[in-house]
Prior knowledge:
This protein is α+β, with helices and mostly antiparallel strands.
Amino acid sequence: MGDNRVVAVTSSTPLRETAGSAVLERSPYPNYKVVVLNDEVNTFQHVVDCLVKYIPGMTPDKAWSLAQEVDSEGRAVVWVGPQEQAELYHMQLGAEGLTMAPLERA
Length: 106
């Protein structure tokens, strides 16, 4: 017997036609950028310490490089990934006093 699964399809669900049948295409969830902005309040060391504390896999060397980018460019993307995690890191860094840009879609 055939496959009897039911898939709810809305007008916003993308479909792709293949060999006479519609195939549901899943769009990947969008990623978001966590961006730290330059300010005259936080020291390089505080920025480095916060990045290492909250951003998974962040090394002190990478954090130092990002802190220098914040200082020279006015901003740095410190993490990119799923929205829920981006919101968490954004909130944690902001709670430590870092100046944060609004989350940006990657």
